[in-house]
Sequence to fold (448 residues):
Amino acid sequence: MSLPAVDWLRGFPALGELPETERSSLAGTAMAMSLPAGASVFAPDQPCGMFILVCSGTVRVFQLDPAGNEIVLYRLGPGSICILTTLALLASDSYSAFAVTESPVEAVGLPAATFHDLMGRSSQFRSFVFNAQAARMADLMAVIQNVAFASIETRLASRLLALAADGRELSITHAQLAAEIGSAREVVSRHLKTFERRGWVSLGRGRVELRNAAPLRAAARSAH
Amino acid sequence: MSLPAVDWLRGFPALGELPETERSSLAGTAMAMSLPAGASVFAPDQPCGMFILVCSGTVRVFQLDPAGNEIVLYRLGPGSICILTTLALLASDSYSAFAVTESPVEAVGLPAATFHDLMGRSSQFRSFVFNAQAARMADLMAVIQNVAFASIETRLASRLLALAADGRELSITHAQLAAEIGSAREVVSRHLKTFERRGWVSLGRGRVELRNAAPLRAAARSAH
DNA sequence: GAGCGCCGGTGACTTGGTCACAGACCGTGA
DNA sequence: TCACGGTCTGTGACCAAGTCACCGGCGCTC
Fold:
C-alpha cells in the first residue's frame, strides 16, 4: 500500500530535500508497516528484505550468545533507519544481532529495488544512509569502550539516565538492566541497592525511580 | 601521481569487474601512497580526506581512552578499505579511533570527488564499499561479544592463533597483547605463564612461541 | 488460599583488574 | 667491559565483577 509522501517524510528532514522525482519514487513504492510491541524486526534466522525507516516507537538491537548472555547494542528511534537490514540488503551478509520493537512501531519499508535505485540516483539519499551507518558505528565503538573499560557503577548510572530520559520512573527489571549493560543480574541488584542506600533511586518490583539525578550524572561521567 | 590500473586493481577483485569508464576514472585519479611501519593513517585530530585502499601491509585500528586503555578493533589487510575514513568522507562525523600501520604499507588513495562520483555511478563500487562496511560492523560486534562475555583465556588463546597465522613465533610484548584484547598486562602475563606451564607456548622477552596449537584452539573455542 | 513462576536479595567462591614493586634483559656510551 | 637507564616480565595483595546456589517475597491464576 502506498502512502501520501507528506505524512511520513516529515519525520526525515534529510529526505525532505530530495528532488521531486526521487521523492515520488520513494512515496510510490513505500509500504506502511505497523508492528506491536515485542515484535521481531530482524533476527539471524529471519533476515528482512526491506529498507526500514522508523516513524514512531523504538527498536532495540542486541546481541545474544549461545549461553544466553544478552547485550544491547543501540536503539532506533523515530527518524532512524535499520542499518543492519540495509547492510544485509547490500552486502549479503548475515548478522548475529536481533532487533525487537520495544513499543508499538510505525515504520515505512522500501523494497530493495527502490532502495538500490535511490542509492544510485540520489547523493542526498546516499549521505542519509551513510550518516546512519556512521552513527551506528559510533554507537558500537562506545559500547566497546564501556564494556572494556568502564565500571559497572558508571555504566549502570548512565544507562538509568538514558532510559529515564525525562521521566523519573522506569519500569524495568534488574535482569533487563543487566542485559542493557551486558552484565549479570546479581551485580546490577547489588549496585542498585547501594544506589538506593545513597538515596539516588528508590526500588520496587520491576520499577526504578530516580530520586536524585545529580549524583547519578556524576557517577555516569566518572571515568572509574 | 597516477598509476597503471593493472598494477593495483589486481588486488581488488570486486573492482576488476567495473566497466571500462569507471575503471579509468579510478585509475586516472588514484594516488599511490607509501607509508612506513608505525605511521598514523587516521586519528581523531587528524582526519583523512581520501578514500584509502590497502594494497600491501596491514593497518591496526584501535580505540584509546583518556586513561590510556587501548583495545584493538580490527585490522585492515591487502584488499581492504578504511571504512572509518570513508564514513568520515560521507558523514562528516569524527571518530575516537586511531589507525596505525603495523608494517610498511602500500596503498592507493582516491580523492573524495572521485569516490563520490563512483558511488553515484557504479553499483559494483557501492556494493564493494557496503561489503566492507558490513565486514567492519561484524568485526565490532565480535569484539563486543568477546569483551562482554568471553574469558581472558579464550580471548588470549584465539588472539595468539590469529596473530601467529601460519608462523609459530610472535614478536610481541605482554603489554601489546593486553591492548589486543582490551585487558591489563599483568593479567596477560599470568595467563601466558600458565600456558607455558601447560606446554602450549614458550616465552621470551618480547616473544611468544606457539608449541602446541591444538589445546590453544580448544581454549579459543571454549565458551568460557 | 494453594500453587507456580518471576523477581529480588545474599553468601561463598572464582576470575579479572589495579597497584606497588622487584628483578631481568638489553642497548648505549663511558 | 661495565655501569646505567629504559623496557619488559613476574608477583603479592587487594578490590571489583561474574558465577553459582539458594531463599524468600510478590503477584497471578485456578
